[in-house]
């Protein structure tokens, strides 16, 4: 493991760069979804099916990435997935049908799922070594990258085609990967001193039934809240533009408001967790997100919806990082992989579900499902605390 505080600091910086890159690239894609929807001529349900390519690629890759991380280490897997992510982001604007769009999004989703499991595994190990709840700071970098990516997308939406815009993201992403990847590969992985050894073949240690149940519970909390992140990313701009007649640039600002509020919440997350504890932070955040999303989806004006999006981002900010960190503390790499798969599965399966509900009902009504699942996360967190107290 890293042998000094300076080594741990360098590792933290390198991981932070990859979290930020992931958010930057992902946001660059989502703010161009309205233009690519128009380019392909897809209906809401057809677009939902195409977005399912991201979900399928990510979930399948996540189940395999845990094994790759145990065999090759989280650092090389992070770098390899980052390269694939940056290359695949240039493909969606080259498509002209929902079917082909879904196929290229399968590749993009595979890279996205892989990098998220890999760098979350590395981050959970570093949190355990440092013995401080710094997980929200990594996810703050993801949110900050998303805010910058969405803001840049809004600025260039009227002047650059999706093809030129996303190709530019490829070049920027590869440059960041070159610099941060060299630093990450030079760092020794952080290994918690109290972690039980894995098998010789890299197989994970076997968890008892209670621990597996807790890991799945934290994964469910992650799923409920990440669903909201995915919905905001893929459908927030379309809601503002289609239902509230916002301009393309102002519509892109919707995700920027959400990402900015989430960044602020996560930057203060370590202090919040140290003062309030994990359960209180999750309950307060989930309740805030319920109120914010009801306003954001049902408000009759653009500015009220933007405010609702910001409140939602603030509420959801620390729930997902807490869930993944707790699952990793309980189950090691297997816990991280399980919670990440469920969590990011919610993020990536949510948008297609929103698409189908939008066709059946309306997009504003479909977006209220984000508030429903945030409420479920609150109830699960409260029930888990009571069960732990009773046990």
TrEMBL record:
Q: Which InterPro entries match?
A: MFS, MFS_dom, MFS_trans_sf, MFS_Transporter
Report the principal subcellular site: membrane
Membrane topology category: Multi-pass membrane protein
Gene Ontology molecular function, alphabetical? transmembrane transporter activity
Zinc-finger as UniProt keyword = no
User: Where does the record place it?
Assistant: Cell membrane
Annotated ranges, domain Major facilitator superfamily (MFS) profile:
8-386
Alphabetic keyword roster = Membrane, Transmembrane, Transmembrane helix
Q: Which GO terms describe its cellular component?
A: plasma membrane
Transmembrane segment boundaries: 12-31, 43-65, 72-91, 97-119, 140-160, 166-185, 214-238, 250-269, 276-296, 302-324, 336-354, 360-383
Check the record and name the CDD domains matching this protein.
Answer: MFS_MosC_like
Query: What protein name does the entry list?
Result: MFS transporter
Look up and give the organism this protein is from. Streptomyces parvulus
């Amino acid at each position: 493991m890293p042998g000094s505080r300076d080594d741990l600091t360098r590792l933290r910086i390198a991981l932070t760069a990859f979290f930020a890159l992931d958010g930057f690239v992902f946001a660059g894609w989502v703010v161009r979804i309205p233009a690519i929807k128009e380019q392909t001529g897809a209906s809401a349900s057809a677009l939902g099916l195409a977005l399912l390519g991201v979900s399928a690629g990510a979930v399948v890759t996540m189940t395999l990435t845990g094994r790759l991380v145990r065999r090759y280490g989280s650092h090389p897997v992070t770098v390899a997935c980052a390269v694939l992510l940056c290359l695949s982001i240039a493909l969606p604007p080259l498509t002209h049908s929902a079917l082909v769009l879904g196929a290229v999004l399968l590749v993009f989703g595979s890279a996205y799922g892989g990098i998220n499991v890999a760098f979350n595994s590395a981050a959970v190990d570093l949190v355990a070594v440092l013995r401080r709840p710094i997980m929200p700071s990594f996810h703050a970098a993801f949110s900050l990258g998303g805010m910058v990516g969405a803001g840049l997308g809004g600025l260039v939406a009227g002047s650059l085609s999706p093809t030129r815009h996303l190709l530019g993201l490829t070049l920027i992403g590869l440059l960041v990967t070159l610099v941060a990847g060299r630093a990450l590969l030079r760092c020794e992985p952080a290994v918690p001193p109290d972690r039980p050894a894995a098998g010789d073949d890299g197989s994970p240690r076997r968890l008892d039934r209670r621990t597996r149940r807790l890991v799945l519970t934290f994964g469910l909390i992650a799923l409920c809240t990440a669903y909201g992140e995915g919905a905001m990313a893929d459908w927030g701009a379309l809601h503002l533009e289609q239902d509230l007649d916002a301009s393309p640039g102002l519509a892109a600002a919707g995700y920027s408001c959400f990402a900015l509020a989430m960044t602020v919440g996560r930057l203060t997350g370590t202090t919040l967790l140290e003062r309030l504890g994990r359960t209180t932070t999750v309950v307060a955040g989930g309740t805030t997100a319920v109120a914010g999303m009801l306003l954001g989806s049902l408000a009759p004006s653009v500015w009220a919806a933007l405010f609702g999006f910001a409140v939602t981002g603030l509420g959801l900010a620390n729930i997902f990082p807490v869930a993944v960190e707790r699952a990793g503390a309980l189950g090691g790499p297997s816990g991280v992989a399980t919670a990440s798969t469920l969590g990011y599965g919610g993020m990536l399966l949510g948008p297609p579900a929103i698409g189908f509900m939008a066709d059946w009902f309306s997009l504003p009504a479909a977006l209220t499902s984000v508030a429903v699942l945030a409420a479920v996360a609150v109830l699960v967190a409260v029930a888990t605390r009571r069960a732990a107290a009773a046990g």
